């Protein structure tokens, strides 16, 4: 391939990925359908779940967090929550949560429980009360393919920054924190930590510390990475990725 062809190919890919990211056809990052039994069409669970989903779509955007349950104890109740990233606007949150609610139902049509994540939000429901408990079941990693030149120092700085942000998030009313640290004259490292808001401060910190302990498995020497779970997540990059 000639170098100009190569360059135009690269430019095309860059442009395409920018378009994909800025329109909100943003793809989900990941999802899990719970492997518990399925519900059937027209069952009380389906009715409760639909009501729950609509109420989460309605109540999440104003504060960035929505939680609730629908249905009495004997009558197949559904429990759910939705959380937007701490910096996203009400309208972005609304778009993300409505998209997530549709997509999760497509992907896990008759599952009693499911969870889906996007850059801007997550959406989760289950047929049992999971509120205030750290979710150790649903978890995934993402990482930047680029390697850093000095992994030992970089890994140390990453762990330091994220640990500080775990503490900061755990005492923040939104259980959310962002921050940055200077790596050298021209480079900075940017981080974000967030928990679902029904967790206690102590459990938020614990959830994030556990996630941070997975850095060596997830993102060793990588320029960026995330550990994303049902109760908390972190992300770091060498470029700014949250709005001020
Ligand atoms: C539940 O439904 C899905 C399709 O939505 C199907 O693939 C799966 O096998 C079902 N699971 C059980 C336990 O019936
Ligand atoms: C990063 O390092 C890994 C392991 O050494 C290697 O397989 C990979 O190709 C490197 N990635 C890039 C983008 O150079």
From TrEMBL:
Give any Gene Ontology cellular component.
extracellular region
> Which N-terminal residues, if any, form the signal peptide?
1-25
Location comes to: Secreted
Keyword terms of this UniProt record: Repeat, Secreted, Signal
The record ties this protein, via CDD domains, to: Gnk2-like (cd23509)
- Limits of the Gnk2-homologous domain: 27-130, 136-241
Which family does the UniProt entry place this protein in? Belongs to the cysteine-rich repeat secretory protein family.
Q: What is this protein called?
A: Gnk2-homologous domain-containing protein
Q: What is the lineage of its organism?
A: Eukaryota, Viridiplantae, Streptophyta, Embryophyta, Tracheophyta
């Amino acid at each position: 391939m000639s170098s100009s062809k190569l360059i135009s190919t690269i430019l095309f890919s860059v442009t395409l990925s920018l378009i994909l990211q800025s329109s909100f056809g943003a793809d989900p990052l990941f999802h899990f359908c719970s492997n518990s039994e399925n519900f059937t069409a027209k069952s009380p669970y389906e009715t409760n779940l639909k009501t729950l989903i609509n109420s989460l779509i309605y109540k999440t955007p104003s504060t960035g967090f929505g939680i609730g349950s629908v249905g009495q104890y004997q009558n197949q109740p559904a429990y759910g929550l939705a959380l937007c990233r701490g910096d996203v606007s009400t309208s972005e949150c609304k778009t993300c949560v409505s998209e997530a609610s549709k997509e999760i139902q497509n992907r896990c049509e008759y599952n009693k429980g499911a969870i889906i994540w996007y850059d801007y939000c997550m959406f989760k429901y289950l047929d049992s009360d999971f509120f205030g408990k750290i979710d150790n079941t649903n978890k995934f990693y993402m990482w930047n393919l680029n390697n850093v030149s000095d992994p030992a120092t970089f890994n140390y700085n990453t762990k330091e920054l994220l640990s500080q942000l775990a503490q900061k998030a755990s005492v923040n009313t939104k259980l959310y924190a962002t921050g940055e640290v200077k790596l050298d004259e021209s480079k900075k490292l940017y981080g974000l930590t967030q928990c679902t808001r029904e967790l206690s401060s102590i459990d938020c910190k614990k959830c994030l510390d556990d996630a941070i302990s997975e850095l060596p498995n997830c993102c060793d020497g990588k320029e960026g990475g995330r550990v994303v779970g049902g109760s908390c997540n972190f992300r770091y990059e060498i470029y700014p990725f949250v709005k001020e």
